[in-house]
Amino acid sequence: MKGIMNMLKSLFVLFAASGLAQAASSLTPVPCNLAFSAAYLEGQDFNCHQLSVPARHQDPAKGSYSLHILRIKSPFHSPGTPTIMLNGGPGGTLDGFLQMWLRPDLYNPAAKPEWMNAFLQQGDVILYDQRGTGKSEPETSCQTVSSMEECIKAVQEKGVDVTTLTTVESAEDLEDLKLALGGKINLYGLSYGTYLAQKHLKYHPDGIQKVVLQGVMDTRRFRDLDQGAYVAQVIQLCETSPICTRWYPTLKTDYVALLDQLTLKPVVVHSLGQDFTIDQHVLNFLLFMEGYSQALEIPRSIDQLALGDFSKLVQEQGMYLTPQSPINSAMNQMMGVHMYCAIDPQETPCKEANYAYLPDPADYNAPLQTDLPVLLLSGQLDPITPPALAEQVQKGLKNHLHVVLPAGGHGSYGNPQELQCTVHILSDFLESGTAVNQDCLQDLPPLNFLPPL
User: Fold this and answer.
1) How many distinct structural domains can be found in the chain?
2) Same domain, yes or no: 286 and 303
3) Which of 99, 302, 332, 428 has CB atoms 3.0–4.6 Å from 436's, for a disulfide?
4) pLDDT of 21 higher than 80
5) Helix H or strand E segment including 391
6) Is 87 a member of any domain?
């Protein structure tokens, strides 16, 4: 299973009116237990529901799961199409999405429009915990075990059928949610959410108005990512920046020396209540993870590491080495296995899997073909879903726009100017489609690497 673990670490027909009514009836109000700020009230500005979905859509007799759904009400006049937002991961939660995008200061229509308001201007925003995550069923967390096999075994012992934890089933959940909302939506996906969105679009394109995919996965192939090559890419970009070169004149030499040093003698760092052994592979992994949202800080991190200070990097990124890591739930592991093995079931780790495994349908990974308007957002510094992946996906999109943010990471924006430019393009796209003015991209500042501490 080592190959799968390495991959994970670097990581949905027109229905009759009666069908719509039946789906909508399964939405049940529940408390949110959330608070944006004192100015926004549950029931007035947002509310929550549960949606019952079959555990196995092709065999409803196998039971059901309850999904937890949050609806943020649009404060704008005459809102129209709601947007369903798909979390990343697999395994990302609604709460995690809120922490990243829906801070109280962003949910403020009286302020200068920000990223979320572009969607709220179109209609309500719908977030939900996908099956196996957050407050949705089944419960798949297992943070006290040390291996993927032990985690899956522990969840199975709770009575969970782990073979229901697939993108195939999650894509059908999304169809049920879409119908419960009236059958007409915009769709936003982030990271794994782009994979889920593509699978939904392949089989259930009806009712989708516009699609935004950010941090785009290519559903047709996976690969073990060369984390060291990513770090080398950031170093090369620093070397093309006069100010970064002035701050870090020996950056490449320092990095190579660090790798050599850690190959000969790994460093033990005590942080987050435990000891971490840092060798060259762990170092590249931690720097790779830093690139998700803080790529412009990597030269500074290497500079500190060269001085012998490993504490800051380990404190910020070491969580991904612990059982508490979001990549260490059975849901994440099973989803990851299915994505990986659906592409090439003959891979050795897939053939050696020692637990129940249901492969995806034979045609499931054929390229997506659609004429729906699709906006692709990529970050030049994204370590896990670089722009090249979006370029592969866009070959099947007849009506698309691909925007690459020079300082952007994985679903992040390198600076305020890039955020504002993205908001402008996003707002225009949601309003009128792919024919939008992109001039703001030409005015973005150069890469602004962080200075030494």
Assistant:
1) 2
2) yes
3) 428
4) no
5) helix 387-393
6) yes
Tell me the two tokens of residue 108.
Answer: 């403020």
Residue 300 has pLDDT above 90, yes or no: yes
Q: What amino acid is encoded at 248 in this protein?
A: Y
Beta strands in 285-406 (DSSP E): 374-379, 400-405
Give 441's DSSP letter. Answer: G
Burial of 396 (0-12, 13-18, 19+ CB in 10 A): middle
CA–CA gap between residue 200 and residue 197 (Å, rounded): 5
CB-based burial label for 319 (10 Å; 0-12, 13-18, 19+): middle
To the nearest whole number, what is the mean pLDDT of the chain?
83
285 and 243 inside one domain: yes
- The owner of tokens 């995919």 is 213
* Shared domain check, 288 and 261: yes
The H or E element containing residue 117 is helix 115-120
Nearest of 386, 395, 15, 17 to residue 175 by alpha carbon = 15
The two structure tokens encoding residue 46? 């947002």
Cα distance between residue 293 and residue 307, in whole Å: 23
Cis peptide preceding 138, ω within 30 of 0: yes
CA-wise closest residue to 326 among 84, 32, 88, 66:
88
Q: Quick check: 328 pLDDT over 50?
A: yes
Domain that holds residue 50: 2-223+364-443
Q: What strands lie across the sheet with 83-86, from one edge to the other? A: 27-30, 46-54, 64-72, 125-128, 83-86, 185-190, 208-214, 374-379, 400-405
pLDDT at 57 over 60: yes
Identify which of 86, 366, 342, 69 has the alpha carbon closest to the alpha carbon of residue 213: 86
pLDDT at site 361: 65
Please state which of the ranges 58-72, 191-205, 213-227 shows the lowest mean pLDDT: 213-227
Q: Is the peptide bond before 445 cis (omega within 30 degrees of 0)?
A: no
What pLDDT is stored for residue 15 in this prediction? Answer: 24
Separation in Å, CA 373 to CA 44, 183, 367, 405: 32, 18, 17, 20
Same domain (yes/no): 203, 242: no
The verdict on 191 and 232 lying in the same domain is: no
Q: What is the pLDDT of residue 166?
A: 84
98 versus 35: the higher-pLDDT residue is 98
Percent of the chain with pLDDT over 70: 79
- Identity of the residue numbered 70: L
Work out the angle between the directed axes of helices 192-203 and 167-180 (0-180°, nearest 10). 70
